[in-house]
From TrEMBL:
InterPro entries: Metal_resp_DNA-bind_regulator (IPR052509), Tscrpt_reg_PadR_N (IPR005149), WH-like_DNA-bd_sf (IPR036388), WH_DNA-bd_sf (IPR036390). This is PadR family transcriptional regulator. PANTHER family: PADR-FAMILY TRANSCRIPTIONAL REGULATOR (PTHR33169), TRANSCRIPTIONAL REGULATOR RV3488 (PTHR33169:SF14). Keywords: Coiled coil. Residues 15-89 form the Transcription regulator PadR N-terminal domain. SUPFAM superfamilies: Winged helix' DNA-binding domain. Residues 123-150 form a coiled coil. The lineage of its organism: Bacteria, Bacillati, Actinomycetota, Actinomycetes, Pseudonocardiales. Pfam families: PadR.
Length: 209
């Protein structure tokens, strides 16, 4: 069962994991996360970064280790993870790896109401998406191969997973395009007629036409 977290933003998990390595000030944390591509893996919104840091401190998951000033620069607070923060990080991590949770990808939302567009337009749009997917997959495969020469696979599994998901999506989109262009998809004729006549799909089904 998915738990309600004191600080539920996935950015909080990224910060806790970073501080579990060593104490750091917020600018340093952000630099580490960006260099490791965590903004893509966790959908980080940088505008909320300092708010999340403040909430983690408020709930006792991190604490100030020291504060210092470098010349004329603003004072920087170095944070470290607390025992409670480490427990939270490990519990959260176990939940994410073991339990299913509902996800609402934008593509799924579009698919759910795509019948409001005509079949020919959907075909064109899916072809555009497939071309973008193929380009992204090729680039990610090349980048992953390069990284594997320098970094153990264990710490690149999130990139490997993302690539596998994208490849599966591309294969599925390609199969749907095949059905649409060949005319073999069930209901395609009714869908096309709906856009030609304006007669609602539900009404066509209820009349048996």
């Amino acid at each position: 069962m998915v738990k309600r977290r004191k600080v539920g933003n996935l950015l909080a998990l990224a910060i806790l994991a970073t501080l579990n390595e060593r104490p750091a000030h917020p600018y340093e944390m952000a630099s580490i996360l960006k260099s490791r591509g965590k903004d893509r893996d966790m959908g980080i919104k940088w505008g909320s970064f300092y708010t999340v840091v403040g909430n983690l401190r408020k709930h006792g998951l991190i604490e100030a280790a020291e504060s210092g000033r470098d010349g004329a620069r603003p004072e920087r607070t170095v944070y470290r993870i607390t025992d409670a923060g480490r427990d939270e990080m490990l519990d959260w991590l176990r939940e994410l790896l073991a339990e299913l949770a509902p996800e609402e990808p934008r593509f799924v939302a579009g698919l759910s109401v795509m019948a409001w567009l005509g079949p020919d337009e959907v075909i064109a749009l899916l072809r555009t998406r497939l071309a973008a997917l193929d380009e992204e997959i090729a680039a990610e495969r090349a980048e992953l191969a390069r990284l594997l020469e320098e970094i153990p696979r264990l710490v690149l599994l999130e990139s490997e997973y993302h690539l596998a998901i994208r490849a599966a999506e591309a294969e599925w989109v390609r199969s749907i395009l095949g059905e649409l262009t060949s005319g073999s998809m069930p209901g395609l004729a009714e869908w096309r007629a709906f856009h030609e006549t304006g007669e609602p799909l539900a009404e066509r089904g209820s009349t048996g036409s």
